[in-house]
Each structure stands twice: as C-alpha cells, then as structure tokens.
Amino acid sequence: MSAYYLFEYGSTLERAYGTAQHLVFLLGQVGILSAFSILFGQPFFASSVITAMLHVLSRSMPNQKTKWLVFTVPYWALPYGLMASDVLQAGSAAAALPHVLGILSGHIYFFHKFVWPKIGGEDWLAAPDFLVRWFDPSARSSSKDSVNAALKARKRGKGRKLGSA
User: Fold this and answer.
1) Helix, strand, coil shares of the chain as percentages rounded to 5?
2) Which helix (H) or strand (E) holds 98?
3) Maximum alpha-carbon separation in the chain
C-alpha cells in the first residue's frame, strides 16, 4: 500500500509544483528526516515521506475532497487518517511516530517554502535554475502564454453536424 501512496500522492505533488521542485522536496525530506532519525533514534521509512507529502498537499488544498480507501475525505484529514489506520493495525501508539515525524518535516518544508516568503523571508527551497531547465524546460514560460498560444494556433472551421458525411 505504501508504494501506491508514494506514487499517487507523489505524482500529485509533482504535477502541482513541477519535477524540479519535487526533487528539491524529496531531497529536503530525506535530509530533515535523517536529522530527526538521529535525534529520536528512530529510522525513517517510506511512511514518513508519504505523510510529509500528504501534509504539504493538505496544506496547499485543505478543502479538496479525495478518496481514501472507501471514504471521501478532505485532504487535511488524510495524513491523520493514515496515521490512525497504522496505529489501529499495529495496536500500538508507537506506530504513530513515523507519521508524526513526517507531518513535522512536511510542516517545516511547507513553512519555509510557502509561508516564510509571504512574510518577507527568502525562499531558499526554490529549485535551482539548472534543475528547472533540465527537468521542466517549459515551466519558465507562463501558463497564460501557453494557453494564449494554443488558442491562436487552433484551426477554426465551420464544423459538421453529427451523423453527416
């Protein structure tokens, strides 16, 4: 199930912010979670990274609905629901620690990437230009320009009725 979550929510995060920024996110999470694992003596697993992804997505679009197992839940509840299901399956509150570390590391990333620049700080988690050029060459042009170019390039004809030859 972890591989599914990693693919599903990782690709959602990548589509939302771009491949270069997603790579910066993953490297940042590995660094933060490694520091936490040394500090707490707890190795981090994929569940920590998945919960960090879910936390960043849930902070970005908190009221969007998503399917989780058989339930439709808002994104903000998803990291906590995943943590609760792991605690219930393990039968121990200790199963929540990787998720708590993931929520904490995701919060650190979200704060420094989105909140801190809005209150006057520097966005030091922005993807470097060489990564943007390498992974997202079309990301430099604005999406509005690409939509306008597509609208100008489309061919307009008189159209045909359905069923006519």
Assistant:
1) 70, 5, 25
2) helix 97-110
3) 72
Task: Provide φ and ψ at 42, rounded to 5°.
Answer: -120, 115
Output the pLDDT for position 154.
61
Asked whether the predicted pLDDT for residue 162 surpasses 80, the reply is no
Contacts of residue 125, defined as CB under 8 A and 6 or more positions apart, other chains included, come to 24, 25, 28, 109, 112, 113
| Mean pLDDT on 66-93 | 87
Kindly report which listed range (22-36, 111-125, 126-140) carries the lowest average pLDDT score.
126-140
Euclidean distance between CA atoms 45 and 95, whole angstroms: 11
**Nearest alpha carbon to residue 59 among 117, 125, 109:** 109
More confident position, 156 or 87: 87
Let me know how long the chain is.
165
Work out the mean pLDDT of the chain and round it to a whole number.
83
Q: Is the dihedral of CA 123, 125, 130, 131 positive or negative?
A: negative
Q: What is the C-alpha separation between 70 and 72, in angstroms, rounded?
A: 7
Q: What's the Rg (C-alpha) of the chain?
A: 20
**Number of neighbours of residue 57 by Cβ within 10 angstroms:** 24
